[in-house]
Amino acid sequence: MRAFFRRNRRMMLVLVLLVAGGMSIMAYNEKDKYFEIAKNLDIFAAFYRELNTYYVDELPPEKLMHKGIDAMLEETDPYTDFIPEENLDELKFMATGKYGGVGVSVNTDSERTVITDVYEGGPMDKAGVKPGDIILSLDGKDIKGLDQEEISRMLKGAPGSSLDMITKHPVTGAQNTRKINREEINVKAVSFSGITNRDIGYIRMTQFTENSGELVQGAFAELKKQYPSMKGLILDLRGNPGGLLDEAVVVANIFVDKNKTIVSTKGKVKSWDREYKTETSAFDAHIPLVVLTNRSSASASEIVAGAIQDLDRGVIIGQRSFGKGLVQTTRPLPYNAKLKVTTAKYYTPSGRCIQAIDYSHRNSDGEVEYVADSVRKSFNTVAGRKVRDGGGIEPDDAVEPTLLSQVAITLLRKQYIFDFATQYYYSHPKIAAANTFELSEDDFSDFLKYLDGRNYSYKTRSEEALESFQATARKEKYYEAVAKEFEALQVKMKHDKKQDLLKNKTEIKRLLEEEIASRYYMQRGRIEKSLSSDNEVNEAIAVLHSPERYQQLLK
């Protein structure tokens, strides 16, 4: 509707000009634009003044203004945002990976709030809190009935402040009262580094925050020191949402020599356009390199992957990345508020922008759409390989993502795998190293017994498809003709939950082993245990072990 009025307003202006002086049609210049802004701001201020003065009920000013801001932001992309002073900690966390708190993750449902992860070396870890502990109260307040966002807010706070907490032991039921002193929690950009398959290095990077490039290089240097015969490196950027552009350039510089363009940015303010080049000699410009990506690899992750691909420095394996080719800048607002605004698009060394969604054009419903494959343009890497814009970074070696079965999803959602791991932890004082730990057949049988009497009902994807067919057939009045066949098919497809557990035993056993490993070795243990069954990691190892295949992918 607003677009309609804008179009008609411009048409009326043109008609007035033609009648008045026979002038030719011309576009608004900057003076016209700023006049329109000033005029509409005057109208907006007068409108609010009259509404606030004469409306029958009281109108909360802050709430009303925020709704106006939110309405304006609907015309932009989802990365442009208004950040009030009370939410600046979130902005700080995105840039630095630091926040004030106690170092735990929690899961809340209608019955309980359970600690699911404890940050190694954090205040909760120092106080002896374990995953599985149930929180009863925080600072004397019973938390039953509070949502997860409210509980997370209560756990956070200024470093040095204290938190009184009562927890319940998940097995014995004993209550424990603790006073926890909050600290500055620094979520590490490198969540794990190690060696896999004896001679392939592996580094998992979770975000691009301050000094994250230095952390990646430090982890790489340590791997080279410990394993001098290392034949290749896997840089895992799966699930990494990005962060600071400068840090992406630093990470690329670890593998790319000095004075190479990694990314360039172009926007409305031409004086802000910039080309980012590597500033130092590469830490290692020759080691065979694989970068792992998936649909959740975005922004700075795509800058690194795009540069490595365009410069033919390494092989990209996994799935196509998210496709966020937009750059945000933070601008100050009155009363310590901030505007995080998209100011530019970024371009990889070959000149392509990998932005997948075109927010500048909307359909008649106001919805945005993905860039169609038919309009995506081709570019060339340094070696002449074809790469395309407009849809994220496409892998050189695509690997289908691993999808969990419905029964596994249900067991995770209902916290049955988590709760069994808690029981296992308290009945087994120690286990083997994370990468060699395996559940025995007796252990898996214990898990099946644990599930007896517990509700883990679910619908398979086939059942959901069948129900959808039934609804459509009824709507189109075909159902009566096929009712008998449909019911027979429904009986044949009816799943046996116990059989589903056995059919998906390997997958469920893997999830149990990863959760249990995390109880003894924390996040590092979970990751280390997962590597042996990780399809993308195994494909990367195979490629790095075959120089001929590695080179073929780069041609």
Explain how this protein is built.
By secondary structure, this protein is of the alpha+beta class. Strands 3, 4, 5, 6, 7 and 8 form a six-stranded antiparallel beta sheet that branches. A six-stranded mixed beta sheet has the order 10-11-12-15-16-23, with helices on both faces. Strand 7 and strand 8 form a beta hairpin. Helix 7 runs parallel beside helix 8, helix 8 runs parallel beside helix 9 and helix 13 packs antiparallel against helix 14. The chain is globular, with a radius of gyration of 28 Å. It starts with a helix and ends with a helix. The N terminus is likely disordered.
What are the segments in which pLDDT stays under 50 over at least 5 consecutive residues?
Answer: 1-28
How many helical elements? 18
Average pLDDT rating: 91
How far apart the termini lie comes to 51 Å
**C-alpha geometry:** globular
Structural category is: alpha+beta
Total strands: the figure is: 23
Question: Mind describing the biggest β-sheet?
Answer: 6 strands, antiparallel
Rg from Cα:
28 Å
Strand content: 15-25%
- Multimeric organization: single chain
Helix content: 40-55%
Family: Belongs to the peptidase S41A family.
Keywords: Hydrolase, Protease, Serine protease
Protein name: Carboxyl-terminal protease
Enzyme class: hydrolase
